[in-house]
Amino acid sequence: MGFILTFLARRLAQGLLIILVVSFAIFALVRMAPGDPARTILGGMASDELVEATAKEMGLRDPILVQYGRYLTGLLQGDLGNSYIKTESGGAAMANQDQGVSSRASVTTLIANTLPYTLQLAGLALLLTLVISIPIGIAGGVHAGRWQDKFAVYLSSIFVSLPNFWFAIVLALVVTARLGWIPSIGYQNFAYTILPAIVIAVEMSPIFIRSLSVSVADTLRQTFVEVAAVRGLGPRKILYGHVLRNAAVPILNLFGVQVGALLGGVLIVEYIFDYPGIGLLTVQAVTQRDFPVIQGVAILSSAIFVVVNILVDLAAARIDPRLES
Amino acid sequence: MASEVLAGSTTIPVKRPIGPTRRLWATAWKRPEFKVGLIIFVILIGLALIFPLVTELSPVKISVKDKFLPPFFMEGGSLAHPLGTDQLGRDLFIRSLIGLQNALLISFSTVILMFIIGTTIGLVSGYKGGWVDTILMRLTDAQLSIPLIILAIVILTITRPTPLAVILVLALASWPAYARVTRSVALTERRREYVRGAKILGASDLRIMLMLVAPNILPPIAFVAILDVARMMIFEAILGFIGIGVQPPTPTFGTIISDGRKYLINAWWIATMPGAFLFLSLLSLNLMGASLERARNMLLRGTI
Question: CA of A23 to nearest chain B CA: how many angstroms apart?
Answer without folding.
Answer: 10
